[in-house]
Design goal:
Strands 14, 15, 16, 17, 18, 19, 20 and 21 form an eight-stranded antiparallel beta sheet that branches. The protein has 343 residues and is α+β, with helices and mostly antiparallel strands. It has two domains: 2-171 and 270-342, no CATH class; 175-265, Beta Barrel (Elongation Factor Tu (Ef-tu), domain 3), CATH 2.40.30. It is 21% helix and 40% strand. Helix 6 (268-277) runs parallel beside helix 8 (304-314). It is globular, with a radius of gyration of 20 Å.
Length: 343
């Protein structure tokens, strides 16, 4: 896999038009650029709208980036709505690669529909240990996300990669448990809305446990999200908005009668060093998916420059994008970084 990056639409358009027949291509760009480039995309090219781009030169915004690969190793599947309608097509593609321990599924989803968990549940036929990595496409000023397979616009899509090289998936959290928990006592799981914690209005109780005035709660969302515990794994659920009735909506599902953990932020650069230091091998290629909320935090605190230095020192052949949520195996996460490493 080879990372590519283009500063202008003309450069990206020319690359699409001249793409070798034996090569596949995935491109990440802002919504307007994706709409324009889709008119020139061959069927073996995938386009995804983003909130920002990660390139071999580091974090950027307003460029076009992505990666090329040997077309024969990939099977691209458009996913219908609801996703279960495409389960049989996805299963056929999965059967071709399930015996390969280095195969993986890349999921690109509509980032505004709130359907990521439903999509993941439609993969019931897959081994839970089969590797899945993905991100949710970002929207434009009209609230629309854009995903294309060639010139065909789709709601969601998956690419099964039958990799000949060893791969690994890594999930990075820059948040740690604070030791405080909340019991979800009333929630609309499909609406991603929590009405009460500990039997009290959600916003007020969230603020009380955090130790801040309720009217200031939203100001602490970036630094104090919630965590959902799955055995030994912690999946971040980021709060989105506080409503007049005291309820709180999130960027992922939270279920009633479960506990969530109040998280606090660690040193992001120290965590990154630990993440990269734990790699099982020296990669020749890295796909890097960062949540838009991490982008907001890193931009606010001026961290992208130091992040780039460490990430590109680890592997210069790196690409990726800023997403509206991350898919990691069977879970949908927020405020997370997901890495695909190829040896």
């Amino acid at each position: 896999m080879i990372a590519v990056s283009f500063n202008t639409l003309d450069e990206a358009r020319h690359h699409l038009e001249e793409l070798d027949v034996n090569r596949g291509l995935v491109l990440f760009a802002a919504a307007a650029a994706v709409r324009e480039l889709s008119r020139h995309a061959p069927s073996r090219a995938v386009l995804c709208s983003t909130k920002g781009e990660y390139t071999p030169q580091g974090y950027r915004s307003g460029v076009i980036t992505g990666f090329e690969y040997e077309a024969g190793i990939a099977d691209i599947v458009g996913i219908l709505h609801p996703p279960v309608l495409s389960a049989s097509t996805l299963e056929i593609a999965y059967r071709k690669v399930r015996g390969n321990p280095n195969a993986f599924l890349m999921l690109l989803c509509d980032g505004t529909g709130g359907m990521e968990e439903m999509l993941l549940s439609s993969l019931y036929f897959m081994d839970p240990q089969f590797k899945v990595i993905g991100g949710s496409a970002a929207d434009d000023e009209r609230g629309e996300t854009y995903l294309y397979i060639g010139t065909r616009r789709v709601r969601n899509l998956g690419i099964y990669f039958n990799m000949p090289d060893r791969i690994a998936l890594i999930k990075e959290n820059i948040y740690i448990p604070s030791g405080k928990t909340l019991l979800v006592t009333e929630a609309d799981v499909f609406g991603r809305r929590v009405y009460s914690f500990n039997g009290r209005p959600a916003a007020g109780e969230y603020a009380r446990v955090l130790g801040v005035p309720e009217k200031e709660l939203a100001e602490h969302f970036l630094s104090s999200p919630l965590g959902k515990r799955y055995e030994d794994d912690l999946i971040i659920a980021s709060p989105k908005a506080v409503h007049p009735d005291g309820s709180v909506t999130f960027y992922s599902q939270i279920m009633s009668s479960t506990y969530v953990e109040l998280l606090s932020s660690a040193d992001p650069l120290a965590v990154l060093e630990e993440t990269l230091g734990g790699s099982p091998f020296k990669p020749s290629f890295v796909l890097n998916i960062n949540c838009t909320l991490r982008d907001q935090l890193f931009t606010r605190d001026g961290l992208w420059g130091d992040f780039d230095e460490k990430m590109l020192g680890f592997c210069g052949n790196t690409t990726g994008f800023i997403s509206y949520g991350e898919q990691y195996y069977t879970k949908h996460a927020n405020q997370t970084m997901i890495l695909l490493l190829v040896e």
